[in-house]
Amino acid sequence: MFMALGERIGHVLRGAAIGVAEAVPGISGGTIALVTGVYERVIASAGHLVNAARYAASDVPRGRGWTRAGHQLRQAHWDVVIPLLIGMLPGLLIAAKTLEPLLTGYPEQTRGLFLGLVLASVLVPVSMVGKPWRRVEILALVVAAVAAFALTGLPQATLTPHPLVVLVAAAVAVCALVMPGVSGSFLLLTVGLYEPTITALNERDFGYLAIFATGMVIGLSLFVKLLQWLLEQHRRMTLAVMSGALLGSLRSLWPWQSDDRDLQAPGDNILTIAVLFLLGMAVVTAMVIAERRRLNRAARDLTEETYEISQVR
Questions:
Q1: Which residues contact 37 (CB under 8 A, 6 or more apart)?
Q2: Contact at 8 Å (CB) between 91 and 16?
Q3: Would you call 92 helix, strand, or coil by DSSP?
Q4: Membrane-crossing residues (predicted)?
Q5: Cβ within 8 Å of residue 38, ≥6 positions away
Q6: How far apart (Å, rounded) are the C-alpha atoms in residues 141 and 43?
Q7: What integer pLDDT is reported at residue 307 of this predicted model?
């Protein structure tokens, strides 16, 4: 009983860490889920929920009942998902409250920190591709990087975001949860919706948040299965494209830039920004190392267990 309670508390803390990560550009919630060992169960549960919604929409109106939808709901790892959700909300709100004054008062220093976070997070999809890289994968990385560099150089919108833009951006950003190394909040940052979303969270703008939540539901329904399929059937190419998109998007986090996103030479606060940049790299690098150690331990334990079974036989 105490072990089960401790495990649930651990999932709540993991959820809080994922919530904080989703608010910070550069740290992927998917990466945190990987590091803490809940990634596969979260993704599997998301797939079951999408299936349940699809079966309910097709079966219930035809009088076929909830049998197939209920079966999918029972397959979800609720013992993991519910504690994670309980922890994610306060983690997200606390991070949002902390970040908004930093973004407003110290934009260059904040971008310097985020630049370090994102640059180091590229290690995740790159390392997941494995070795050796094929020419077509290198080409895909370069094309994705160039495209992302061009897109993130477009002037950021300063007007009140259109609801349709918010809807689409939320649908795309939520998919970052299933892609370790890709930050949903960073995607929002590149299209100019990061600060409006943070402000809406802090000011409890329920109209904006309702549109954003609707976009998240649409994104999960439409894209999760597709992304799962891509990672299963075209894993290396998908990860190569993700790596290139991250590298190209670093343009938007260069600390010294104009309001129109024109890059400028380094100016004031170089020392402070450099320290924050290195700090950001160190944080994500530590997470990557922790993940690799966990995977190595799991592989070693599996090998030892297999050996013991073979000895008994």
A1: 294
A2: yes
A3: helix
A4: 80-99, 111-130, 136-154, 166-194, 206-227, 269-290
A5: 11, 14, 80, 84
A6: 25
A7: 62
Question: What are the b/e assignments for 168-198, b being 16+ CB within 10 Å?
Answer: bbbbbbbbbbbbbbbbbbbbbbbbbbbbbbb
Hunting for tokens 């990560």 — which residue is that?
A: 21
| Sequence-ordered list of residues with C-beta below 8 angstroms from that of 6, at least 6 positions apart, any chain | none
8 A C-beta contact, residue 273 and residue 107:
no
Q: Please report, as a single letter, which amino acid is at residue 13.
A: L
Report field, pTM of the whole predicted structure over 0.85: no
Q: How many other CB atoms are found less than 10 A from the CB of residue 147?
A: 15
Q: Where is pLDDT greater, at 224 or 281?
A: 281
Burial class of residue 304 in the structure, from the number of CB atoms within 10 Å of its CB (0-12 exposed, 13-18 middle, 19+ buried): exposed
Please name the amino acid found at residue 148: A
Mean residue pLDDT across the chain: 79
DSSP 222-291: HHHHHHHHHHHHSHHHHHHHHHHHHHHHGGGG-SSB-TT--B----S-HHHHHHHHHHHHHHHHHHHHHH
148-185: pLDDT as tens digits: 888 777 665 554 567 888 888 888 777 766 666 566 77
Q: How far apart are CA 85 and CA 76, in angstroms?
A: 14
- The Cα 14–Cα 5 span in angstroms is 14
The three-state secondary structure class of 37 is: coil
**More confident call, 93 vs 135:** 135
Tell the burial category of 311 from Cβ atoms under 10 Å away from its Cβ (0-12, 13-18, 19+): exposed
Torsion sign, CA atoms 199, 203, 204, 207 = negative
Which residue has tokens 């409250």? 97
